[in-house]
Amino acid sequence: MVLTGEDTASRELKLPFSKIRIIDSRPDTSKIGYAFDNDIFTGKKRSFQRVQFRNGNGHAIERYYAAYFSNAFTQNDFELLIVMKRFWLSANVISNEKRVEASNSVGADEKLYCKWEYYLGKNGKYLPAKRVDTVLIIAGDPDRYNYYKTERERYQELKSALNKLVEMLDYSNAVNQFDNQPGKTLEQIYTFNNRLNMIPVLQDTAIRRGVYLNFEEFKNNRPSILDFTEKKTRYRLTNTENYLENAKGETISNYWGYSDGRVIRYGMLGNEKMFRVQNTFCFFIKVSGYVVNRNTKATDLTTNNAIGRRNSVEPVSKSKFEIWVPYQIDMETGTIY
Predict the structure, then answer these.
(1) What is the DSSP letter of 250?
(2) pLDDT tens across 199-237, in order?
(3) What is the SS3 assignment for 276?
(4) DSSP per residue over 205-228, as a string?
């Protein structure tokens, strides 16, 4: 996705700085999330696609801001430094870690998870100004049947969100207090934000074999249960699912995840395999559903001696499909989205 500024902000906005700098300090800088994609050729196959801006996400946003806010900048020595800790688009609107809801969370509504820190900078000094930690709901159109966003629609919504993340804040207090407050250097900001990547599970050469009862154990690479056995149970005719027993043969329940020394699994949603992506982990949940194919035909309608037309929608068939729903782990909080 190419992020360009076709429009420009109003001159009346009057931002009190001359440029915006972006530091992409997210654990996964390769993308900004996943979006639900409808195959327009068959109308049946649905999948997820990576959402990313061309030429690097942080760099693309910085260039976009330079173009879009060109008329709103003030020609002075100030700059706005934005550190992106979280900027993630998820089509999994319902994500409270319950498998039963995974199949209901796929649709037109999306969430944009944002955690941005704002610094006002001048002459190598940066003063912390604002912090935004929020979730933006990007709703679909309820009046459009079987509605899924096009890439163009999603592109416009992302640009609108990016604009609001700058325009909604008041920077006047930071400007007024700048000379009276101690600031930080750019090196200190980089060092501070790199601390999250120094946690043991990201620094150790291997993830220890064992059962992790919570995210804190996983983050510190210290499983509570070292002696366990992985077993399988069968349900329906062809489906199996892993479960764990401790050294006494007792079933282990309510665990966060586990590792057999080779494969790491997320235990909250069916023991799916986890994969490391840069400084975080992701996994995929297989969800089954049905596409209902309908036939629309015109029928006569007589009312008060006037003949009109109405559409009658009749079900014709339904086709089963399976998709792998992507999730990523927030390495700061343990939340999945």
Answers:
(1) P
(2) 999 999 999 999 999 999 999 999 999 999 998 887 666
(3) strand
(4) SSPPSEEESSHHHHHTT--SB-SE
